[in-house]
């Protein structure tokens, strides 16, 4: 029972750590400018331009990857816990690995990300990127009231469909369509 409890609390803590690091470190320009620049100014900008696709997700795992270094540091900072609660620490390692894999996959395959991680899709593609902080499960988004649905709303449907037709993730004006597609007139 004690092992199961360690695994469960470690799994839950992994989700909380992911949520809190994303919300209060990687989106905090004032206190963590370097983390903000690496995460928000680069990762979010690429994702917004590419309909959730971030080209850095295609790179191989290396220590030069900011996300990999941040996860490795998080695991390293929690390593003293392994002496007293080894299964809790194993759950943290599992959380870091699953986060890395799921996050990379959601940015490689935007259709998969939109379907299976709509809260993360909403975080990147929605109007408010200061909501929907969770990546793997929106447990703490619901708990703290930061879940804001964007997928399935009319602006999202129009933009998403428009991307498939034109290759641009934006609502285009009729005037633009007349210039780009003369067969419409």
Notes on the protein architecture:
It is a single chain. With 185 residues, this protein is mostly helical. The chain has a domain at 2-113. Helices cover 63% and strands 0% of the residues. It contains nine helices and no strands. Helix 3 (66-78) runs antiparallel to helix 4 (86-108). The protein is globular. The chain starts with a helix and ends in a 5-residue tail after the last helix. The model is unreliable at 172-185 (pLDDT under 50).
Short description:
The protein is mainly α. It has nine helices and no strands.
What are the defining features of this structure?
mainly alpha, 185 residues, disordered C terminus, 9 helices, single chain
Structural class: mainly alpha
Number of helices: 9
DSSP E strands, number: 0
Order of helices and strands: HHHHHHHHH
Query: Gyration radius, to the nearest Å?
Result: 19 Å
Strand fraction equals under 5%
Instruction: Give the overall form.
Output: globular
Q: Give the end-to-end Cα distance, rounded to a whole number of Å.
A: 70 Å
The biggest beta sheet is recorded as:
none
Q: Indicate the percent of residues in helices.
A: 55-70%
- On the 0-100 scale, what is the average pLDDT? 85
Residue ranges: pLDDT <50 for 5 or more in a row? 172-185
């Amino acid at each position: 029972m004690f092992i199961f409890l360690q695994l469960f609390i470690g799994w839950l803590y992994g989700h909380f750590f992911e949520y809190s690091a994303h919300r209060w470190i990687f989106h905090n320009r004032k206190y963590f400018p370097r983390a903000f620049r690496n995460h928000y100014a680069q990762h979010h900008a690429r994702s917004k331009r590419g309909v959730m696709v971030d080209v850095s997700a295609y790179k191989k795992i290396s220590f030069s990857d900011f996300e990999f270094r941040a996860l490795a540091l998080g695991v390293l900072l929690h390593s003293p816990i392994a002496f007293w609660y080894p299964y809790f620490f194993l759950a943290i390692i599992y959380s870091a690995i699953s986060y890395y894999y799921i996050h990379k996959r959601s940015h490689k395959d935007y259709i998969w990300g939109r379907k299976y991680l709509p809260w993360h899709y909403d975080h990147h593609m929605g109007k408010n990127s200061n909501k929907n902080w969770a990546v793997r499960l929106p447990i703490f988004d619901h708990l703290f009231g930061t879940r804001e649905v964007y997928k399935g709303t009319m602006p999202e449907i129009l933009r998403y469909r428009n991307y498939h037709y034109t290759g641009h993730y934006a609502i285009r004006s009729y005037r633009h369509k007349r210039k780009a597609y003369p067969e419409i007139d």
